[in-house]
Amino acid sequence: MNDTTQTDIDRSGLPAGLHDETFVSEYGRIEAIRAARYNTSFSLILADISGIGQEVPASAYAFNFKSIASAILNTVRGCDVVGTTGDGRVAMILPETDYFGSLVTIRKLARAVEQSFSGPDLPPVIFSQATFPKDGR
Description:
The chain is α+β, with helices and mostly antiparallel strands. The chain has helices at 21-38, 58-75, 99-116, and strands spanning 18-19, 42-48, 81-84, 89-95, 126-132.
C-alpha cells in the first residue's frame, strides 16, 4: 500500500517555473517589505486543489495537479511568482497588483483551468485572494 498522501506530488514532474513553498514564503516576505517601503500594493492568490485528491487515485491526482499548475503558469504574467504550498495549493504572488487586478486574474485563471479540462472531468478548484495593504498589515 502506498504510504504517501495524495497531496504529495513528485516535484520532478512539475512544470518549470513552479517554485517550492520555501521560495514563495521568502519572496512574499520580501514583497511585503517592498510594498510597505514604496507604498505600493501586491496581491496573493491561492488556488486550492486539495479537494481533487479525495475521489481520484493518486496518479490521476498528480496528473490533474500538474495540468492545473501548467494552466496557471501559462496565464500569469512573467513577473508573478507561482509555487506550491505543500498541502495541495498553488500560491501566486502578484507584485504591484491591486484588488481589482487580482479579481481579473482570478477570472482569467478560472477560465484557463476550465479550458485545460474537457467534459465533466473538471476538478474543483477554489481561488481566494488577499491584497496588501488593503486586507491587513
